[in-house]
Amino acid sequence: MTPESSPDLAHIDVWLFDLDNTLYPAECEFMALIEARMTDFMQRETGLERTEARALQKKYLHEHGTTLAGLMANHGVDPELFLDEVHDVSMDGLTPDPALRAAIERLPGRRLIFTNGDARHADRVLEKLDLADQFEAVFHIASADYVPKPNPGTFRRMIEAHDIDPLATCFFEDSEKNLAPAAGLGMTTVLVGAHAARSDAAFVQYRTETLAPFLAAARLKQS
Where does the secretion signal sit in this chain (predicted)? Predict the structure, then answer.
């Protein structure tokens, strides 16, 4: 990548990262373990057959932003019970990426996590990835009163909680729909993952399959 084609992020002071399938590749299938636990929970909660329970799980994800939000709205599920259960999976598929750590370390300014997962899950994943010391704070689902991204109110709550300027913020996400409200607020948006190159959404400014080379090549603010 030439300097002329490098991502121009010299205006960025705040680096905002989604967690799951963003700081590690979706191909490691860690989230697949969590989704399977969600289907187990859905089956037990609704009494549906597994195929039907999974279909309802995906319906809630689409309509409410997370499966949990749908379960809370339609079944009165205790969010902490759900989150504790579905995140209780093996972390063997997650491995530290020294190149990603080095790329994050070079970013000037503040670094934050913005996740629809809970605090304990975020802490476990960041520790496993050897990235826990790289982030100032985590804005998690309880911080948002269990209202998930892409709800615009959750973005506003996150901005207020951490006193950030959206115009000086870059947001990295594997979910295209979660970048739309960020772009509307003036954030620079980066879609991450093997699917990113196929996105033609106008609100996605940059696309990258993996984070480390993108961050390593970016033009940054000089101190």
Answer: none
Q: Are residues 74 and 173 in the same domain?
A: no
Q: Are residues 137 and 78 in the same domain?
A: no
Q: In this structure, what are the phi and psi dihedrals at residue 171, rounded to the nearest 5 degrees?
A: -115, 125
Q: How many domains does the chain have?
A: 2
Helix (H) or strand (E) holding 68: helix 67-75
Same domain, 215 and 108: yes
Q: How far apart are CA 31 and CA 86, in angstroms?
A: 10
Average pLDDT, the chain: 95
**pLDDT tens across 97-138, in order?**
999 999 999 999 999 999 999 999 999 999 999 999 999 999
Q: Is residue 1 part of a domain?
A: no
Each residue of 151-165: pLDDT tens digit? 999 999 999 999 999
109 in the same domain as 17: yes
